[in-house]
Write a structure and sequence with these properties.
Layout (H helix, E strand, L loop, with lengths): L29 E15 L14 H9 L6 E15 L3 E5 L6 H8 L7 E6 L18 H11 L4 H15 L14 H12 L6 E4 L8 H16 L3 E5 L3 H7 L2 E6 L2 E6 L1 H22 L1
Parallel strand pairs: 3-6, 3-7, 5-6
Antiparallel strand pairs: 1-2, 1-4, 7-8
Helix pairs in contact: 3-4, 4-5
The structure holds adenosine-5'-triphosphate (ATP).
Adenosine-5'-triphosphate (ATP) binds next to strand 1, strand 2 and helix 2.
Length: 289
């Protein structure tokens, strides 16, 4: 995942969460189709070409390896391996899986941020993509980032200006909006990212857990926003390590393991199976050790 900050509280407080909406009614029309998608990363400077590594080398290491002439030595990380699913309007889809299982890569490919090595992603007529993280810049002020993020979400400059106060209020960052984002606490940055991300009431909202953060008050506001989007027949994707959050919020859950979609279905069933899998894996590890 692009960003991880140990200070961020990734957990939702279950009491703050809206009730989940299991698919009792008919599903809306498809909003996003992921067809046999593969995501591969090329990693420079690997010891052995072709080896699949589990970690990402740091920028420093990559530059060092390149400086040492290891330009040709690359390995490939096959992060997503032939995943297919159809998302419908009105669905809230959780994505669970252990670290490195490919959740963020799948989300980024579904969002069009990285091209699939194989397969294709089809989106409905007017997709508004969320996940402005990719375009925000820490060295720029919140104000500039609101503009950049708003434009990236398809708003015009005029529309961003009109929504500016609303975004700042939602993020609750006050005059910090005029300071570079690198001066923000992790909570402030996360709140601003969420505020920018959700300003367009998008058709498809993708939330990586860094967005699902903040104090109880902000959690309530962000949950209300998520509900609003879902009620307007949008589709929500939520990557989370908190199974409680996923069970409460989602109508459907995808379980990723080693780049593959292991299970896709009812939140309780899928999270139970996933929990069991994690437990048995821990048990095996424990026995080995
Ligand atoms: N930019 C990148 N360059 C190289 N490898 C990457 C890159 N991003 C992810 N990977 C690798 O791809 C695999 C899947 O990573 P990804 O971040 O999609 O998993 P994840 O399930 O979201 O993990 P986490 O729960 O830790 O965020 C991992 O092996 C990871 O090291």
């Amino acid at each position: 995942m692009a960003e991880s900050d140990p200070e961020i509280d990734f957990e939702f407080d279950p009491e703050d969460l809206p009730e989940k909406h299991h698919g009792s009614g008919p599903l809306g029309p498809p909003s996003l189709i992921v067809d046999n998608v593969h995501v591969k990363y090329r990693v420079f400077g690997a010891k052995k070409a072709g080896a699949v590594t589990n970690g990402k080398p740091s920028l420093y290491n990559r530059l060092r390896w390149r400086a040492q002439g290891h330009v040709g030595a690359t390995s490939e990380v096959h992060a997503v391996r032939g995943v297919s699913f159809v998302a419908h309007q009105g669905e809230a889809i959780g994505i669970v899986g252990t670290n490195g299982s490919g959740k963020s890569s799948l989300l980024r490919a579904a969002a069009g941020l990285i091209p699939p090595a194989e397969g294709a992603v089809y989106v409905g007529a007017e997709p508004s993509l969320l996940g402005v993280n990719a375009v925000l810049m820490r060295q720029l002020t919140g104000e500039r980032n609101i503009m950049i993020g708003g434009l990236a979400l398809g708003l015009s400059m005029k529309e961003v200006r009109e929504r500016f106060d609303e975004i700042v209020d939602f993020a609750d960052i006050g005059d910090f909006v005029y300071l570079p984002m690198k001066t923000y606490s992790s909570g402030m940055a996360a709140r601003l990212r969420f505020a920018i991300s959700s300003v367009a009431t998008p058709d498809i909202l993708m939330i990586d857990e860094a967005l699902a953060t903040g104090d109880a008050d902000f959690k309530q506001r962000s949950n209300a926003k998520i509900e609003e989007i879902r009620e307007h027949a949008g589709t929500i994707f939520l990557v989370s390590h908190s199974l409680e959050t996923v069970r409460r919020m989602c109508s459907r859950v995808l379980w990723m393991d080693q780049g593959r979609l292991v299970q896709d279905g009812d939140p309780e069933e899928v999270t139970d199976a996933y929990r069991e899998h994690v437990r048995s894996r821990r048990g095996k590890k424990g026995k080995k050790g």
